[in-house]
């Protein structure tokens, strides 16, 4: 299926590795011009060069800390100037720490708010004028399976992602008249460094990952490119009538019926 992303410009945040990198790679392979952002400039430049080498399409790296307001403004100004348009915004960021509710102080909540909720609101607002001009704009937010069923120790993540789910519903409602769709993708367990870092020190990684897979109906942890394929579809012309939804990519891990 031709996703018709050839003339599109996509901005992908938190993309030097993990889910963001896989999404940038898939969109680029589908023909989009991709602009990637994350903090470490060396890592980001390396990733951009590797994706471009792989797909043959232009990939631009612009360093940004999505938790910082001024950075967000500079980033979008520079990104928009590169190709004169933005058609697709993929909101993503590093995840907040895992722990019990009683262990997070006010500062930890503020940090998670700036990184995972305010960044989505502000970046979307900054890109909105370009998406209106695009005529078929797309906002896609990476959230978490924890918006569908309880995940222990994820109170910061869950609280911020639930905010995104609500925000996306309102955005879908308001932006429909501009032909802009707004959707969320909720990863279950997808193998990235964030997941590898949760393996207890000294444990055998393969055994630990097998243990984690036991509760997943498909019996395995997902691959970043499997999540990226769903994002690419949501970004495509074919997904023009999908808006305001949260789609799980979790191997069936969420057992809720609705
Ligand atoms: N993987 C999963 O199974 C899973 C499941 C549920 C939810 N999620 C969520 O999905 C998101 C991506 O996770 P991942 O697994 O891809 O993580 P990852 O492999 O650790 O990659 C994180 C990426 O985010 C960038 N980043 C971190 N903080 C940033 C900031 N302040 N500004 C800009 N970029 C930043 C990192 O680059 P720099 O450090 O250079 O900035 C890196 O490129 C996270 O929010 C995570 O909680 C993941």
Write the layout of secondary structure elements.
Blueprint: E1 9-13, H1 18-29, E2 33-37, H2 41-55, E3 59-61, H3 69-83, E4 88-91, H4 106-134, E5 138-142, H5 155-175, E6 181-187, H6 193-196, H7 205-213, H8 224-235, E7 246-249
Parallel strand pairs: 1-2, 1-4, 2-3, 4-5, 5-6, 6-7
Helix pairs in contact: 1-2, 1-8, 3-4, 4-5
The chain binds NADP nicotinamide-adenine-dinucleotide phosphate (NAP).
CATH topology (level 3) name: Rossmann fold
CATH class: Alpha Beta
- Mean residue pLDDT: 97
**Major sheet: arrangement of strands:** 3-2-1-4-5-6-7
Main beta-sheet strand count, sense and barrel state: 7 strands, parallel
CATH superfamily: NAD(P)-binding Rossmann-like Domain
Query: What is the strand tally?
Result: 7
Describe the protein's architecture and organization.
The chain has helices at 18-29, 41-55, 69-83, 106-134, 155-175, 193-196, 205-213, 224-235, and strands at residues 9-13, 33-37, 59-61, 88-91, 138-142, 181-187, 246-249. Helix 3 packs parallel to helix 4. By secondary structure, it is α/β, with parallel strands linked by helices. The chain has eight helices and seven strands. It is globular, with a radius of gyration of 18 Å. It has one domain: NAD(P)-binding Rossmann-like Domain (Rossmann fold, 3-Layer(aba) Sandwich), CATH 3.40.50.720. NADP nicotinamide-adenine-dinucleotide phosphate binds at residues 14-20, 38-40, 43, 64-67, 92-95, 115, 142, 144-145, 157, 187, 189-190, 192-195.
């Amino acid at each position: 299926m031709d996703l018709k992303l050839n003339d599109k410009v996509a901005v992908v945040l938190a993309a030097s590795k993990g889910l963001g990198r896989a999404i940038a790679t898939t969109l680029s392979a589908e023909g989009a011009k991709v602009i990637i952002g994350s903090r470490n400039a060396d890592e980001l430049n390396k990733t951009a060069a590797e994706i471009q080498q792989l797909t043959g399409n232009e990939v631009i790296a612009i360093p940004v800390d999505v938790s910082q307001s001024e950075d967000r403004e500079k980033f979008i100004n520079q990104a928009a100037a590169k190709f004169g348009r933005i058609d697709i915004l993929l909101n993503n960021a590093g995840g907040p720490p895992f722990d019990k509710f009683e262990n997070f102080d006010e500062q930890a909540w503020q940090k998670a708010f700036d990184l995972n909720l305010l960044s989505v609101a502000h970046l979307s607002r900054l890109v909105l004028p370009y998406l209106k001009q695009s005529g078929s704009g797309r906002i896609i937010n990476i959230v978490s399976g924890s918006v569908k069923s309880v995940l222990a120790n994820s109170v910061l993540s869950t609280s911020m992602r639930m905010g995104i789910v609500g925000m996306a519903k309102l955005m879908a409602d308001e932006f429909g008249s501009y032909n802009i769709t707004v959707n969320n993708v909720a990863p279950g367990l997808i193998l990235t460094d964030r997941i590898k870092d949760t393996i207890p020190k000294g444990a055998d990684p393969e055994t630990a990952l097998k243990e984690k897979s036991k509760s997943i109906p498909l019996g395995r942890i997902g691959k970043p490119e499997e999540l990226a394929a769903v994002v690419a579809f949501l970004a495509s012309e074919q997904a023009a009538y999908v808006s305001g939804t949260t789609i799980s990519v979790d191997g069936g891990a969420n057992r809720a019926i609705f």
